[in-house]
Specification:
This protein is mainly α. Helices cover 71% and strands 0% of the residues. It is globular and about 50 Å long.
């Protein structure tokens, strides 16, 4: 597992912005594959940019090698597979399979019992609203969709970066608390279960590697704030 040094979360605006850029990449990569998008992710320059952005995150050496291996396999398989194979892998894992869909990308299916799913989606919407966001009635996805959660974590990281740049200490704390809560309450349990199921049921699926990379990244993000909490409590 990833080991984090017991130190405060970074005070670098570049760090937070780079994290947000990675979430933006993950959101786009997770979207339903279309030929134009597939060609973008097949480019070596796209993979290079991802790794360069990861290196901007302080203590990037703490990223588990397995995360990089997942990304490498994801890109490699995109390049060597047909568009039909890529689309088929996406559908098989997330949309349609027999006798059941292995990884429907909705958090409330994994973090709560079925009869509490509506309550869970309401809690997620409240987390968005408390951070100044509201989903449009015309929004295509439910609030607990993985793509929506990744977009939200991107937003929170960018807002943290803006506050760090402006040296607004209390506002930085606000955005970090929102990230820590959302990761611990929703994203980490959700993505962990998705990745475990995907590895068990569809180990050779292209998108299983992407899910595993997402799992490592949200885990790293969560541990960043856990390390900061440990540091503050040890100094008091």
């Amino acid at each position: 597992m990833i080991e984090m040094k017991k130190m405060p979360a970074s005070n670098s605006s570049e760090h937070a912005v780079a994290r947000g850029q990675i979430y933006h990449f993950l959101e786009l990569a997770f979207g339903h594959p279309a030929e134009e998008g597939i060609e973008y992710f097949r480019r070596e320059s796209t993979e290079t940019l991802l790794y360069e952005t990861l290196e901007k995150i302080e203590d990037s050496s703490a990223f588990d090698k397995e995360m990089h291996d997942c990304f490498e396999r994801f890109f490699e398989n995109l390049r060597k597979s047909s568009v039909e194979k890529i689309e088929g892998d996406y559908i098989m894992l997330f949309a349609s399979n027999y006798p059941m869909v292995p990884c429907p990308p909705y958090g409330s299916l994994f973090t709560e019992n079925e009869h509490k799913r509506l309550e869970e989606m309401t809690a997620i919407k409240e987390a968005y609203q408390e951070s100044g966001l509201a989903l449009s009635e015309k929004h295509e996805e439910l609030p607990d969709h993985l793509g929506v959660e990744l977009e939200f974590l991107q937003y929170l990281s960018f807002r943290e970066g803006e506050s760090l740049k402006d040296e607004e200490g209390e506002i930085v704390k606000f955005w970090r608390s929102k990230q820590a809560h959302f990761l611990d309450r929703f994203s980490v349990p959700f993505v962990t279960q998705l990745a475990l199921i995907a590895k068990k049921t569809e180990p050779d699926n292209i998108y299983t590697d992407l899910l595993c990379a997402i799992q490592y990244f949200v885990d790293h993000h969560s541990r960043e704030f856990a390390a900061a909490t440990f540091y503050r409590s040890s100094q008091s």
